[in-house]
Each structure stands twice: as C-alpha cells, then as structure tokens.
Amino acid sequence: QVQLVESGGGLVQAGGSLRLSCAASGRTFSSYAMVWFRQAPGKERECVAAISWSGGRKYYVDSVKGRFTISRDSAKNTVYLQMNSLKPEDTAVYYCAADLNGLRVGVPITKYEYGYWGQGTQVTVSS
C-alpha cells in the first residue's frame, strides 16, 4: 500500500520558519517528480514547489520564491519543504504528492499529473 505522510506543520508567528517532511512508503519514488501543493479555505489548490526526479529542476510559485526551498532525499524516500519568513497568507493545508509518470523530463505543476497524495498538514501563520 502506497502512503505519503506529511509532518512538520503547526502554528508559527509571521517571520518564523517550519520544515515540512513527506515520507513515502510502499514504493520507491526516486524516479518520480514530487510536489508540495497547498489549499487555503475557499481557494483552489495551488502548486507551491516541485522537484524533478533527479532533483536537478525545481519550480516555485512566485509568492514563495526566495523563502521556500524544496529538497529530496531519495535514500530516505522523503521530500522536504523548508519554509522561512512565513507570512499569514501562507496559512493553508499543505499536501505532498508524487508524479504519475516516472523519469519525466521537466517538473509538472498541475494537480492532475500527480497520482499519489498525502493527507495534508496544517500550517497556520499568525500575524
């Protein structure tokens, strides 16, 4: 059974930092792009950051560039999202997901291209 389990969310003051982790089990995702999406109440789920299967390509939505860093440890089958200088507008449920297709060229950023999803972890940033 494939599982993606996010952890590391919580309540933090504006300007603070959090590190999210997404641990995969049931299969190896070293050949698959991984992504972090977030969804705030009443808003569409948006791609925050994505990383290619090799780790050589990364994508960030404009609103988090320079503040968030995505990384992966294939040996641990885990992907991370380091979030610094957090803002109240970063408040959302954060989900990790794994690409439907392995060894993809490029980094997919639409939710329809990801087939395995975690349950989400809440990030709340207070002002």
Descriptors:
seven-stranded mixed sheet, four-stranded antiparallel sheet, 11 strands, mainly beta, single chain, 127 residues
Verbal overview:
This protein has strands at residues 3-7, 10-13, 18-25, 32-39, 46-51, 58-60, 68-73, 78-83, 92-102, 114-117, 121-126. It has 127 residues and is an all-beta fold. A hairpin with a 4-residue loop joins strand 7 (68-73) and strand 8 (78-83). The protein is globular, with a radius of gyration of 13 Å. The model has no long low-confidence stretch (mean pLDDT 95).
Chain oligomer state: single chain
Total strand segments: 11
Distance from N terminus to C terminus (CA atoms, Å) equals 40 Å
The fraction of residues assigned to DSSP E strands is: over 45%
Helix content: under 10%
> Main β-sheet: number of strands, strand sense, barrel status?
7 strands, mixed
What's the rounded overall pLDDT mean? 95
Order of helices and strands: EEEEEEEEEEE
Question: pLDDT below 50 for ≥5 consecutive residues: which ranges?
Answer: none
What structural class do you assign from the helix and strand content?
mainly beta
